[in-house]
Amino acid sequence: MSKVDQANSVLSVEEQHQIRVDKVHQMRAEGLEPWPQMQSVDATTMQVLREYNEEQPLEYQIAGRVMSLRGHGKTAFVNIQDRSGRLQIYLRKDVLGDHKFDQIMKYLDIGDYLWVKGFTFKTQTGEITIKADQAELISKCLHPLPEKFHGLADVEVRFRQRYLDLISNPESKQRFLQRSKVISLVRKFLEQHDFVEVETPMLHPIPGGALAKPFVTHHNALDDQFYLRIAPELYLKRLVIGGIERVFEINRNFRNEGVSTRHNPEFTMLEFYMAHQDYKYGMTLVEQIFGTIAQSVCGALTVQYGEHQINFAAPFDRIGSREGVLKYTGCTDDDLAPDKIDQTLRRYNIVCSSNVSINQKIYMLFDELVEHQLIQPTFLIDFPIESSPLAKRDPQDPTVASRFELFVGGMELANAFTELNDPFDQSDRFQEQSEARGAGDQEAHYYDADYIRALQYGLPPTLGVGIGIDRLTMLMTNTTAIRDVILFPTLKKK
User: Fold this and answer.
1) Largest CA distance in the chain
2) Which end of the chain is more exposed for a tag (fewer CB within 10 A), N or C?
3) Domains with residue ranges and CATH for the chain
4) pLDDT tens digits, residue range 121-139?
């Protein structure tokens, strides 16, 4: 530990902050600007390390945040960090000049941004370093960084001050770089399959596209109530009606729900729609998307998630809710019989109304008892039509929706169906949803007359798929809490 570190370690955070503020005043009294105009930078730290040539030292202009500072009389070693990594800088008094060197050592703190110009060399310990011919403090940091040996461990601070998390925890920064790569790969995959990316409204006059409670806001100029988007689905299907037959959006959705390790009220979804395909083809397409991302981000089709090795090699398992309940619980066929199902529900403390269908009751058992057990990629494929008001009916069984959900790592990752394109059927289902809303179901759909009118112009047979980007990133980065893959998660006010 340097003398500066030793001195600061006995001071409170507030005292260290005040010392840095005092330095700003001292610098300005000497005619120095703590936040001067930019200096030209021509390389990153990683580029310097990659291009190092012992036979031919190269000159660079480079800048980064000071992460460590060790003074040794007339010399000093500084480690700086930029977007690509870290690099050691060597400062010498006889090179910089007495005045400049003393100035740097007097005012430079860990956390400041330092610019240097100089040639590369390798120290006796074999570390590639830049020997600075010129050096300037280009941005003053007024607060001490988190303790360097343990990083930023305080979870509350990590989420509220994400910039400190990114500065101090390389693994956190890497996680968000991988998230960016996941989104880029999704976009590239769909564009290669002739999909068009669009943007649809975030403010909706009528919330729709999902069974969820919306956030409500008021538009002053129009003097009208609007809702933050819970899903872009109905707008994207309007575009398919208009002739954009393969369309996608990587979007922010807002749902007025609780916060948990897998839920955030504001989250990112991919939704894409494809004319002239159905949900069965959708399963194949989703397998390809997940396999492509796993291979590119993790380097293999098998990825580590918690204590599990998850294999994204196609084909994924496919089960019905009845099959799942029988396979993963102690229930028998007799437990699921029409005259016994209510007793079974009570055994597991599952409450439902008396007019719920047998299919829906079995699905409720699946939802409560089975979903969290589906670790390997598994498609659930026989949803009760009552739970799928925007899905087409199965041609062999009108009580079942042409729909699937994908579960991985015990959580839902994707939801898809063959889109309902019969305007009369859709109108009837909207009406049923409106009645459910009137009876107190705050997640039920509103009746959307404008969407019904759009359907009347003809929606071709269409596949629709939604994939949760945040949860997908959790899987690909071996992260068990959604707040760790959202840069600024929703938090309760202090």
Assistant:
1) 92
2) C
3) 3-145 (2.40.50.140), 168-316+376-484 (3.30.930.10)
4) 999 999 999 999 999 999 9
